[in-house]
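Researcher: Structure for this, please.
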Amino acid sequence: MHDVLVAMGSNYIQSAHIQWASDRLSLYLDNMCFSQILWTQDIHGTRVWYMNRLAWGQTLLSLKELEQKLKQIEQDSRRTVEQVTIDLDILQYGQQRYHLRDWTRPYVLQLLDRRSENSLFFQ
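Model: Predicted structure, token format:
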């Protein structure tokens, strides 16, 4: 089993898309838990607001297989450049971190700071 951290974000019908993606993630991740929801403005300075959440879980899928599943979820949500119905990024797979710039974003730091005490792979 591989421990996984996934960043989730949506700027269009946010609550529905975050919930939908959370349900879809549960098809691929076991022992899931979620961070709190955090609203943030677009990092590019537009007036668009994002709903953000982190998901923790475990999977038997390889990194490549999991990336493909997440991209399929994004495609199934009919995501466009303007309407980010759902954005899913693997921040950590096993002990390896990805999207290193995202780890320093204020919303990720805030959500990590508020993470569940049950998290096994943050040290």
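Researcher: Any notable elements?
Model: Residues 63-76 form the longest helix (14 residues). The radius of gyration is 14 Å.
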